[in-house]
Amino acid sequence: MEYSALLVEDSMSLGALYTEYLRAEGINVTHVHYGEDALRELVKWQPDLLILDIKLPDISGLDILKQVYGKYPNISTIMITAHGSIDIAIDAMRSGAFDFLVKPFDSKRLSITVRNALKQKHLLELVTQYEKSLPKGRYQGFIGDSLVMQSVYKTIDCVANSKASVFITGESGTGKEVCAQAIHQTGNRADKPFIALNCASIPKELIESEIFGHCKGAFTGAHSNRDGAATRADNGTLFLDEICEMDLDLQSKLLRFIQTGTFQRVGGTKEEHVDIRLISATNRKPWEEVKLGHFREDLFYRLHVIPIELPPLRARGNDVLLLAKKILKTYSKEEGKNFTEFSPAATNTLLAYTWPGNVRQLQNVIRQIVVLNEGTTVEHLMFPHPLIQIQSSSAEKQYKCDNDSLIYEQNDTRRESTLLLNEYSSHSIKPLWLVEKQTIEGAIAMCDGNIRAGAYFVKLI
Question: What is the pTM of this model?
Fold first, then answer.
């Protein structure tokens, strides 16, 4: 596959050298010297790769990068500069750069970086192409088109009309009740009741009554008969959330109810029969609870017929952006604010954070941003301080890791240079820029003014 690159480098000699490096990789290169020229070229055509110097005569490379990321997100960008610092690297990566190279660098380092960038671009294109063949956007209350969520949607479609028990697992805030409602709404019981009960929020003494109901006088305060969730869900779906919090004694009664479809109200003697679809959920690992003796093994096998594991938000890729945009729109309307979008840096923050509280935490953060700020665009610095700190630390760590080998090579070069300096007097030493200029000009002269041939000759030297 043939790739194209746009090189933005104001130094003619370095531009010629980097052009030859890239052409040796089989890449078609267009070289421009100014930022304005680069922007004009990008309007005409979009390269696979943008190699962009930060220090340009007319426009900052970082400003160009921000425009490219907003308008042409499919272009992989590599930033280069002779003035490397961690702050610059962090700014570049926040703005969407794939990597950051500090001059001087040789053909090998550029080649490795370019190959990695193109490899990632190719993989992303394959994933995008595959995702386009799958259902998109929204599904029965879910928002997300990632591959892991497509798998969840497919499972829901398969089990919707079955009477088999479904056991949903996943971290807190991943949408277990949304999943249960999706199963109900997709199946043949959609026009029947959906009753949800959170076993962790009900006192141990009352949960049996909440599920099965009670008769008048069954306990203090029971002034009349009361239907439980099982009765209200007849012919529909009963969803028991956080079921691993249920007391062991009640687990045995629930097991009998599942096996026979019958139950007795608290304080009653009459057997009642209902037809329900049972869905349960927990944010714990149910088999671990069985091994610890906190959950009955026979009940586990009755409930865990069709398992559905909901992925955490950090494993859902760009779904976080779809969710964030929807939540931002909703909360902006509720609060009477004008927010409509996220800046490139804010987008990177959303993607870089791990979201341990998942969708619920994302809702909390965006609500806080909307309430405490004004404007139309959410900026990086509007996020709560912990998210800003984590993003900066992540970028700094990546920059240091990527440049460890370069720093080591530069230290070796400095030691060798110190030894060489001892062999020469200060009068015989010429400035590096002058040596480079004379070498390149001499090579071009030897090649009868052919710049490409001269650059290749310098590379061989």
Answer: 0.60
